[in-house]
Amino acid sequence: MNMQKSNKKKENRITDNRNTRQVGLSSNNELLLRIRKIKPLLIVSLIVFLILFSISTRDVIYASGTPIDGGNTQGVDFEGNLGPINFQLDNGEEGGLSTTLQIMLLVTIIALAPSILIMVTSFTRILVVLHFVRSALGTQTTPPNQVLIGIAIFLTVFIMSPIFTDINETAIKPLENGEITQEVALEEGVKPLRTFMLEQTNQKDLQLFLDIAEIGEVSEVDDIPTSVIIPAFIISELKIAFIIGFLIYIPFLIIDMVVASTLMSMGMMMLPPTTISMPFKILLFIMADGWNLVLGELVKTFY
């Protein structure tokens, strides 16, 4: 009897512990759900606060700095130094953006930089073709995604280097020297990218988005909005990448068919053909110097 009572007490303790754990987990889940619900509100409130602060503030706190125009703190810049770093701030009184808004815009651009890299450069075509090569070989995760992305990034830098140089010469350097304004620098910097995208864009895809945007006949290339060129360029890149991928698949598909028919004729129906054909496909790829051939011809498609 004593043993039964002690066993019952142990079972009751175990059930109580389980119940307390479940209550704790449920409370934690409810807390996480509440935080997720108010997270967008907190972000919006922070942005509004920064905007109001940047508009209403008149005095800039700085380290060992002095105003430029003899103590006049309204509508002038401030300069100073923080250790070895020299800095200049302006309070946005002369029609420009305040420092806080400029920082917010810069952070937003940095956050969108990967998407910009994918959308308006050769990165998309290169990466899709490399994934087709890996799928055709049947090696699954070899080379890994990190290697393929690294190859695509460096090939993109190689292909786009003349365009980046042109942007640096026509937009960035004049802006740093104060020869042009930010608006003019943006217009001049977009022109080389527009030229590159238009050269790689199919006319049919470009006409599709012109029709969707309800834009009539365009007499000059400069009249085409950039918002129309970018999606047309992306579709054209995907189309070209899929065509190249189809051509890459053909020799490896023939090897799969030969191996499968050989195994069927030998009665080895339970043996997967892909396991046997993979070494032959890798051997063919090595003998044909596949990486040199694929990457070389892929880069030449942009010239």
Structural summary, described in words:
It contains nine helices and three strands; from the N terminus they run H-E-E-E-H-H-H-H-H-H-H-H. The chain has 303 residues and is mostly helical. A three-stranded antiparallel sheet has the order 1-2-3, with no helix packed on it. Strand 2 and strand 3 (85-90) form a beta hairpin. Helix 5 (182-200) runs parallel beside helix 7 (226-265). The longest helix has 55 residues, at 2-56. It is extended and about 75 Å long. The N and C termini lie far apart (91 Å). The model is unreliable at 55-76 (pLDDT under 50).
Features:
mainly alpha; 303 residues; 9 helices; 3-stranded antiparallel sheet; 72% helix; 3 strands
Helical percentage: over 70%
Q: What structural category do the secondary elements indicate?
A: mainly alpha
| Overall radius of gyration | 31 Å
Biggest sheet statistics: 3 strands, antiparallel
Please work out how many helical segments DSSP would assign: 9
Write the layout of secondary structure elements.
Elements: H1 2-56, E1 65-67, E2 77-82, E3 85-90, H2 99-120, H3 123-137, H4 145-176, H5 182-200, H6 203-212, H7 226-265, H8 273-287, H9 290-300
Helix pairs in contact: 3-4, 3-7, 4-5, 5-7, 6-7, 7-8
